[in-house]
Write a structure and sequence with these properties.
The protein has 275 residues and is α+β, with helices and mostly antiparallel strands. It contains five helices and 18 strands.
Length: 275
């Protein structure tokens, strides 16, 4: 029986139980892919990650990210939460306030700006999307590793009131080869002007409490459509109220990059026993 350091980290919050949890297994070189997927299904969180020694030059560590059903090349809240766990455990140390994470999407740069950790997301790829489920609302398919169908519902009240048909969203996601659907609306609140919800039932995640890659996709949508000027190049999105959370995602958008960041707090700290 092997024992590995294990943390469960709440991401996009500084207060336990209000963000999005990620399970992090530290020093997982001895695990096979099948074991990793089995552990991810057992934790039953939206993502479980495994911290490993890097294999690419210039990377500080390697991260593998799993939903309960499959491995992902990149995901936002697991990246931020795993970096928090790696730093807290001493698995890595920042160099001039920077970390470089190797993952399926390549080697990504992270900035440690206490109390937040930011990650520069993979370059989004955008294309039109037809989404009859949402009437005439404008939608784009945004590929940031995970693929989100991003829908502008206008006002945050429409986002709040949305009661999604999970079967229909799963069918739509499969038909467009997408991870799921992310919707957003305007709150009128300068502190958190955008309200976001993300649904990925096709991947076993009916509603992701606070979704990093979904917020990257919204930032890409705003930049592509010219709507970003209403919020500026740096804004905060809120997410999770419909599932009892209250997450905050800091988003920074430039012409050539999108970064997301947030706080993280460890809620569980112990060991994982693996046969």
């Amino acid at each position: 029986m092997t024992q590995l350091p294990f943390k469960q980290v709440d991401v996009f919050t500084g207060q336990p139980f209000l963000g999005n949890p990620v399970a992090v297994v530290i020093g997982a070189e001895g695990l096979e892919t099948k074991q990793m997927q089995h552990i991810a299904a057992w934790t039953n969180l939206s993502e479980t990650t495994f911290l490993l020694k890097p294999t690419q030059e210039g990377a500080d560590y390697r991260l593998r990210i799993f939903t309960p059903r499959q491995e992902l090349p990149f995901a936002g809240h697991p990246t931020v939460g795993s970096a928090h766990a790696a730093l807290e455990s001493g698995f890595v140390k920042p160099k001039d306030g920077k970390l470089r994470q190797e993952c399926g999407a390549g080697v990504l740069e992270l900035a440690v700006e206490k109390p937040r950790i930011y990650v520069r997301a993979p370059t989004p790829k955008l294309s039109p999307a037809a989404v009859p489920l949402f009437g005439t609302s404008r939608a784009l398919r945004v590929d940031v590793g995970p693929v989100w169908i991003v829908v502008d519902l206008g006002d945050a009240s429409a986002v709040d009131a949305l009661a999604p048909d999970m079967t229909a969203i799963a069918e739509l996601s499969d038909s467009l080869d997408a991870t799921g659907v992310t919707v957003f609306g305007r709150t009128g609140n300068k502190a958190a002007p955008i309200h976001v919800r993300s649904f990925a039932p096709a991947h076993g995640i009916p509603e992701d409490p606070v979704c990093g890659s979904g917020n990257v996709a919204v930032g890409a949508f705003l930049r592509e459509t010219g709507l970003l000027k209403a919020f500026g190049p740096a804004y905060t999105a809120r997410q999770g109220m419909q599932v009892g959370r209250d997450g905050r995602v800091a988003v920074r958008v430039t012409a050539d990059a999108i970064e997301i960041g947030g706080e993280a707090v460890t809620c569980v700290d112990g060991t994982l026993r693996v046969a």
